[in-house]
Amino acid sequence: MLTSAEILESARHTLDLESDSLKLLSNSIDDSFVKAVNAVNQAKGRVIVTGMGKSGHVGRKIAASLASLGTTAYFVHPGEASHGDLGMIEPEDIVLALSNSGEAPELGDIIAFCRRFGIKLIGMTGRRDSSLGRQSDIVLCLPPIHEACPFDMAPTTSTTLMMALGDALAIALLKLHNFSKDQYKLRHPGGKLGKMMLTVADLMHSGNEMPLVAPDMDMAKALVEMSEKGFGCLGVVDKDGDFMGVFTDGDLRRSMAPDLLTKKIQDVMTRSPKTTTSDTLAIDALRVMNTTGKGITSLFVLDGKKPVGLLHMHDCLRAGVA
Fold it and tell me: Which CATH number fits domain 4-179: 3.40.50.150, 1.20.1270.10, 3.30.110.40, 3.40.50.10490?
């Protein structure tokens, strides 16, 4: 039975070994990586990623990362490929095959299929002189490393390097394609990432929902309007529709006096309040509300000087932006 100290030592040994191996990988990448990036970029078809065992699991992740970052990619299981799924690979596709040894027999039919139909093959392997390495048009060769497994057998360090090299490939292609945040958002509508990519425009109230009033409105009427709209605030706009200021529940408390109802809203409104724009990320707008120190629960959305919407804190919370 291992002691706590031995367990921690084992963990540190594994992490240090893999960290050192990543540095070796960083120092070893060469023009072959550039060729691989350009080949994928120039391919008219899709990226077909394949691999067996642990390499296959890594391959699925690489395909998913490529697809989410703008490069159409699929994973094809080499075993299933031999029983009909080769039909999923088209002549204009490019194949990325993963095998540390380069000798996984299950890859044989995919390799032969690529050679027969002139499909470009990128091999990610630890041995350039392996069957996969020799048959590949481009070889992404991993540096010589030791697996973290005490028998130097179980795929551990090697799969870490494959995963990292796949990430490097995906990010290089992202930059080559000028892949934008808006494109990323389209591919990530769900989960925490999707919520983080929501913009103010996705959540704001607009049109007749906006609580807007003229600066010369009597406070008695203004309070009725604020109550009917239900946002706890009013935006004040001039005759040209330009934004002048805001009146909130907080302003109401600060303005309480016997003569309040005899005043105009422009007399008690807050001038130059915090505002936002429609293309601002909702999470950034929420951060403004939370960090002003004045208990702001809503922001008017401006396009130049014109109000185009209102974002309330509750809209963000309902959408899961927090």
Answer: 3.40.50.10490
